[in-house]
């Protein structure tokens, strides 16, 4: 007698995962983003946003390994959670900090309170002390470390093993994006873009991009200065000379209200107390830490009455710009001179605008908001410096030394413009 044959199943017990699992959806989008063409910073930025959602991270950063004259560095090229000014300006050597150590040992590193580890490197501009929990994962491309993916959280709780495994898997998509970007030939796929912005000072100019960065970005080169107080004093004099030269040319062109307002801040050029403070703090702490301390003192003073004083806040911003210019000059970084277009993240102080005017810079472009009633705009107009602001996606496309055509008449910025556009500009069309 034979065994009865079981009836064939009428259905298969399976589940199709539709758009009801944000993590699955996020991972699929992440993979898709890694394959997309376009500027690498823009691709990495979108990927960071996806990882922040998938991994419940407050901060997601990507450091890319880049070669320079002084060796390899890990440079922050995309981020979610930190100020946009950190992009391109936060740099670590291989083996420096927890991030650099992860790249050096080729393994993920986590810490529940990163600042308590001896490898930790504090970067004041980031305010990362608010996000103590850290996970750093090396990214590999073509058999070598191409960068580091960093996740941070506001709670002082270590990442779990499951979370580390998930983040390590997510990191492979970043490695793919980096490898794809490096495989592209710049001759076959040059970067070029046409971006729109808000013109605040009219004019059309062609020039090369210059970015001053931040004080922190200058720290490494400044660390080798033997007598920081003396170097700061000389650099201060050089910057003041540039500013005074601009003032002599533009003061007759300013309206009385703007002139009076500007003079309230340019009095700092003769402020012996400010000079002495710069000299003393740089001698005590070093060039960059000393200048940062000076800027911090003026920033704190703007809250002396318990609430921010707009005039004192504006003065503090001018002092901070002056300190940045002094540091750049002291370390022989290029200042915005003839043929250069100064690119800033947002805002425009009078000190920066006066420096561009004094050195005959070509133009100024800001990625973000610039107060049209600010002194920086008044200076740019008086000096006939084309100024374009509110340019979305600027830092996703622009690089130092890029050729840019600034049309602050029609509100257009062309990055690495084609030869036809350059010819039209040169022939006044």
Structure write-up:
With 429 residues, this protein is α+β, with helices and mostly antiparallel strands. The chain has 3 domains: 22-183, 2-Layer Sandwich (Beta-Lactamase); 190-212 and 335-429, Phosphohistidine domain (Glucose Oxidase, domain 1, 3-Layer(bba) Sandwich), CATH 3.50.30; 214-333. It contains 14 helices and 14 strands. A hairpin with a 2-residue loop joins strand 1 (59-68) and strand 2.
List the helices and strands and how they pair.
Blueprint (H helix, E strand, L loop, with lengths): L21 H14 L4 H15 L4 E10 L2 E10 L10 E3 L3 H9 L3 E3 L21 E9 L2 E10 L7 H23 L9 E4 L1 E4 L2 E7 L4 H8 L5 H23 L5 H11 L5 H14 L1 H15 L8 H21 L9 E5 L5 H9 L4 E4 L8 H8 L4 E3 L4 H4 L5 E5 L4 E4 L3 H8 L3
Parallel strand pairs: 9-10, 10-11, 11-12
Antiparallel strand pairs: 1-2, 1-6, 2-3, 4-5, 5-6, 7-14, 8-12, 9-13, 13-14
Helix pairs in contact: 1-2, 1-4, 2-4, 5-9, 6-8, 6-10, 6-11, 8-9, 9-10, 11-12
Over the alpha carbons, how many angstroms does the gyration radius reach? 25 Å
Reported by name, the CATH topology of the largest domain is Beta-Lactamase
CATH superfamily of the largest domain: GAF domain
Number of helices: 14
Overall number of strands: 14
Q: Ranges with pLDDT <50 over ≥5 residues?
A: 185-189
Mean pLDDT: 85
**Secondary-structure arrangement, i.e. CATH architecture of the largest domain:** 2-Layer Sandwich
Secondary structure category: alpha+beta
Which percent range describes the beta-strand content? 15-25%
Distance between the termini: 98 Å
CATH class of the largest domain: Alpha Beta
Largest sheet: 8 strands, mixed
Number of domains: 3
Structural shape: globular
Order of helices and strands, N to C?
HHEEEHEEEHEEEHHHHHHEHEHEHEEH
Strands of the biggest beta sheet: in what spatial order?
A: 7-14-13-9-10-11-12-8
Portion in helices: 40-55%
